[in-house]
Amino acid sequence: MKIAKIETAEVNIPLVTPFKTALRTVNSVNDIVIRITTDDGQIGYGEAPPTAVITGETKDSVRCAIEEFIAPGLIGMEIENLEGIMGKIQTSMVKNTSAKAAVDMAVYDLFAKSCGKPLYKVLGGSKGEIETDLTISVNETEEMVKDSLLAIQQGFRILKIKVGKEGQKDVERIKAIRQAVGPHIKLRIDANQGWTAKDAVRIIRKLEDMGIDMDLVEQPVNAHDFEGMRQVTSQVDTPILADESVFSALDAIHIIRERAADLINIKLMKSGGIYEALKICAIAECWGVECMVGCMLESKIAVSAAAHLAAAKGIITRADLDGPSLCSVDPYTGGPSFLGPRIIMNREPGLGIIGMNQ
Q1: Cross-strand bridge partners of residue 36
Q2: Distance of alpha carbon 169 from its chain centroid, rounded?
Q3: How far apart, in whole angstroms, are the C-alpha atoms of residue 127 and residue 114?
């Protein structure tokens, strides 16, 4: 099974509601999808979101990276030569992690198909189902409370609350949501780098003093402020999750050694794909640091790849894979079933994606 052709296309999927964070507001999933075809007609799928504020990539840069730098070196390579393919992907150019991730997951899709098994089983996993949270975008308090209650009605037991724009107002938002949803719903707070270290400590301590239980606080300070992250982690009781601070395995080592966070968020678009994400998992396992697998504004292809990773690795104890739940339509056939908070893994080989409906 040799790589014969690599093609790119664009997908545009409207969101149910605008996605708002401390960094941006988005109304649709507008991603680049790829299709790798082998010489025997097998097809593997991948996807990359152009998230300029996080990875620095745009739609044009993703397509250019894949078509001009990554794809040419892979044509003719045997899918079973996974190590060789991944080496070429990662050394084809620096950075451009989302473009690399799209090709990486399509190759893993084909590799698992060559084994005749779902990808998560090829990676050694046995979990047939995982649970995801649902993101509540940052808005006025009343709207966030309304969105939170609607999420619970849909069966979600874990909410990821976006904050980070206004310190005191963030406290009011979280307090109101906790009062509305009750004590048994898990709240994950995501500041998206929106606070300073001093503000983060003050806000988190205030919430703790108010008795507001939080599962974690994600990336409270700037991605490059490792010292600020360490200060926050050491001065609060709530677990701190490093997200934008961890792109690579080396970043994970640095965060863990410096005790700059309690948990690590793995995203395929930051790591450059499953191959590099597995290295982060191995490092986390060595130190006993639990991980979450997250997604950006991705549709079913990329989120399916992340779900297979989450179902495969025991060190991944949390999932933030609500991308398909945020989309108003599902343009794909096959793959895992996204049923509200439940992600039921596919039994078909690979990612399980059969094709696109548009």
Answers
A1: 6, 44
A2: 27
A3: 21
Q: Taking the complete model, does pTM exceed 0.85, yes or no?
A: yes
DSSP code of residue 346: P
Beta strand 158-162 pairing with 134-136: parallel
Q: How many CB atoms lie within 10 A of CB 107?
A: 26
Residue spans of the domains in the chain: they are 3-116, 121-356
Nearest alpha-carbon partner for 120 in 354, 346, 355, 353: 346
**Cα distance between residue 200 and residue 217, in whole Å:** 9
For 284, other C-beta atoms within 10 Å of its C-beta total 24
DSSP 66: I
Identify whether the C-beta of residue 269 lies closer than 8 Å to the C-beta of residue 238.
Answer: no
- Beta carbons within 10 angstroms of residue 179's beta carbon: 11
Q: Which active-site residues does the annotation give?
A: 162, 267
- Give, for all 358 residues of the chain, the pLDDT tens digit: 999 999 999 999 999 988 888 788 899 999 999 999 999 999 999 999 999 999 999 999 999 999 999 999 999 999 999 999 999 999 999 999 999 999 999 999 999 999 999 999 999 998 999 999 999 999 999 999 999 999 999 999 999 999 997 889 999 999 999 999 999 999 999 999 999 999 999 999 999 999 999 999 999 999 999 999 999 999 999 999 999 999 999 999 999 999 999 999 999 999 999 999 999 999 999 999 999 999 999 999 999 999 999 999 999 999 999 999 999 999 999 999 999 999 999 999 999 999 887 5
Assigned architecture for domain 3-116: 2-Layer Sandwich (3.30)
Q: Which two tokens stand for residue 272?
A: 């450059």
CATH number of 121-356: 3.20.20.120
Query: For tokens 């037991």, what's the residue?
Result: 157
C-alpha 358/C-alpha 248 separation (Å) is 34
